[in-house]
Structure formats: structure tokens, C-alpha cells
Specification:
By secondary structure, this protein is α/β, with parallel strands linked by helices. It contains 13 helices and 9 strands. It starts with 19 loop residues before the first strand and ends in a 24-residue tail after the last helix.
Length: about 350
């Protein structure tokens, strides 16, 4: 039996994420026209489903929707509600922000969970930004992916979940996890120091996520069969990783020199994921971050897919989301409560 072979979660529906998708809701022509002219609501709807796209058009028979499948799914739920009400004044209640938030939450829970192999529970996205990131993580044609933004947005958790799934599908032969060693004084570890207990404490987050996703026995089996490696970043030097998915976590704490070394390690049939928060750099002596440097060089190229998370997309904890908004100097725009998603797996762990 292949390692990590588990049954696919049957309760999690699967939509054609990444494909253009169309739906139609029948309703009186005058109501469809009025809804299509509600630019304020349509703008909020588009913002709610970003970075996915959505267009809405009225016809003599109702409302048509075209766009990315997750966005169309949410729009269909809202317009189904509007079609059942007797008059436009009642329809206005459907367009409230509270109702839109509830529809988005319901769609995330019931329609948009990821059906992933190799995991013991479904991964339920808590933001459309998470869903867009996962779409690229599972797309073997995307060689380099960045997930950047505040802590608590689920970047590392999603990358590891995708890596385990790709192992289960035999899309890759190896999953490699690494991050720089951060000493208590802010200095970055050398090749000798990165094997000490301090480094082991800092990679505990990887084990927390791995055990939560698939259990101790499977993780130990993957390590024993050399399909999973958790290594100090300095041990990447001189190596070439073939048939692998490589995750570099906390990449904001790499200098430009070390970043160049790390992102050039992938070989044949390999992909790399880089995660970090460019606003939270802990390099010594004010040294600039190699993550910010590389992201700047990648502008206007097609080398990588870059997913930028915002403070409003923090899903770890409401207080954390508010604090990140304060640090970023942006208004607090709400919080998706994971408790609303029952006690199923969410795309975040308690330690990251």
C-alpha cells in the first residue's frame, strides 16, 4: 500500500477551481435588472470573493453569473435568496454585509472544502485568499509560489497540507521543509548552530502541523522512507532536490545571499513554495530581507505566482487579526471565526 494512502473525504464537495464557471438564477426581469444595477453591493460581493473574479448580467429570464467557480458559488447563494422574496424592499435585506458574510461562511463550510488525499480530515478554507493559494499549490505546472503576509493567515499550514497530498498522489517523491534559525538575540544561525536544540524548538511548528494533518505514525513512516525531510536551511547548500516540493518558511529572515542560495536548489520535476511576512524581519544589524529583495525582482515577470495576504485575512484569532491591522495601519475589516466551521480541520494551526 502506498504511503499516506487514505480515503478521500467524501463529505467535501469539489468544484472546478481554476476554471471559468457559469450559473443562472431565474427571477423576474425587472428584479434582475435592479440587482445588476446595484453597484454598491456588486462591489462588496467582488471584494468578498477576491482574488477570484465574477461578472453578473441581467437577462429577460433572470441573472447570469460567470467567473471562477468559488466566486460564482457565493453569488449563486445570494441570488437564490433574492429570487425567493416577494418584493425589492425585502431583497434589500439580502444585500446587507451581515448576510453576505454569512453566505461566504456557509459556502466555505459546505461547498468549498478541499477534497485532499493523504489527510485525516478535510481542509476547510477560511478565506478566498487561502483557496487561491491552495489552487496553485496543487497545480503541478506552477514551479515557484510565494505566500506572503501577516502571521496567522494559514500560509504554512496550507503549503504542508498540499505537500502531503502531492506525496499521496505520487506527484512528487519528496517533501522538504526548512526555515532559517532565529537565535534569541536576532542573529541568524550558522551551519553548526542550526542543529542545536534551539533550532529543533523552532521547527516544532512543522511537526505540529504534520501530526494534525495526518498523524504521528504516517509522518514517522515518511521520514523513515526519506520521503519527508525537515532540515536546517544551511544544509540546502550544494544540494539539488529532484522530484520534490520544497517549502522555505519564515523566508523574510533570509539575507539576499542566503535567499539566492535557497531558491536555486530545485532540480528536475521539482517545485518550491516560499512563505513569510516581509513586514516582520529579524535579521541582525538592520540587514535588508532577501524575501523583499526577491519579490521586487520578480515584479513584471511570469517566474512565480505571488499570493499576498492582508491583515483582514488573519484567521488564527480575532485579537491577532486586530493587532495585525494596527501594525499595518489598516482598518479592522472583520474576522472569520473558525468555530463557525464546526470542529473540522481549518487551514491553520495553533502554532505558527
Amino acid at each position: 500500500m502506498p504511503l499516506l494512502e487514505k480515503s478521500i473525504i467524501k463529505e467535501a464537495p469539489q468544484l472546478p477551481i481554476g476554471q471559468q464557471y457559469s450559473e443562472f438564477v431565474r427571477m423576474p426581469a425587472d428584479r434582475a435588472l435592479q440587482i445588476s444595477q446595484r453597484s454598491d453591493f456588486l462591489a462588496r460581493l467582488s471584494a468578498a470573493v477576491a482574488p477570484f473574479t465574477l461578472s453578473v448580467r441581467s437577462t429577460a429570464l433572470g441573472l447570469g453569473m460567470t467567473g471562477d467557480a468559488p466566486a460564482v458559488t457565493v453569488a449563486r447563494r445570494v441570488f437564490d435568496q433574492a429570487a425567493t422574496l416577494d418584493h425589492m424592499a425585502a431583497v434589500d435585506t439580502i444585500f446587507s454585509q451581515a448576510n453576505l458574510d454569512a453566505v461566504v461562511s456557509g459556502a466555505m463550510k459546505r461547498d468549498l472544502a478541499f477534497r485532499l488525499e493523504g489527510l485525516i480530515r478535510p481542509v476547510r478554507p477560511l478565506s478566498f485568499a487561502q483557496m487561491a493559494l491552495m489552487k496553485d499549490l496543487l497545480n503541478m505546472s506552477v514551479p515557484l509560489i510565494f505566500g506572503v503576509g501577516p502571521t496567522g493567515t494559514g500560509k504554512t499550514h496550507l503549503a504542508i497540507a498540499a505537500g502531503l497530498t502531492l506525496l499521496a498522489r505520487n506527484d512528487v517523491a519528496h517533501l522538504v521543509l526548512t526555515r532559517p534559525h532565529e537565535r534569541s538575540d536576532g542573529d541568524m544561525g550558522t551551519s553548526s548552530s542550526e542543529t542545536d536544540r534551539g533550532f529543533n524548538d523552532q521547527i516544532a511548528v512543522f511537526y505540529d502541523i504534520l501530526y494534525e494533518l495526518t498523524g504521528h505514525a504516517d509522518i514517522q513512516s515518511l521520514i523513515n522512507h526519506r520521503r519527508l525531510e525537515i532540515i536546517p536551511l544551511s544544509q540546502m547548500r550544494g544540494r539539488t532536490f529532484n522530484d520534490s516540493l520544497v517549502l522555505i518558511d519564515e523566508a523574510q529572515n533570509l539575507s539576499a545571499r542566503r535567499m539566492r542560495m535557497a531558491v536555486t536548489r530545485t532540480g528536475r520535476r521539482s517545485r518550491m513554495v516560499v512563505t513569510g511576512d516581509p513586514s516582520h524581519v529579524e535579521l541582525k544589524n538592520g540587514e535588508p530581507s532577501g524575501l523583499a529583495h526577491l519579490l521586487d525582482m520578480l515584479k513584471d515577470t511570469d517566474i512565480a505566482r505571488i499570493h499576498a495576504f492582508q491583515p483582514r485575512q488573519v484567521i488564527r484569532n480575532r485579537t491577532v487579526a486586530r493587532i495585525e491591522s494596527l501594525y499595518a495601519g489598516t482598518p479592522f475589516e472583520g474576522f472569520v471565526d473558525a468555530d463557525l466551521h464546526d470542529e473540522e480541520m481549518t487551514a491553520e494551526t495553533t502554532r505558527h
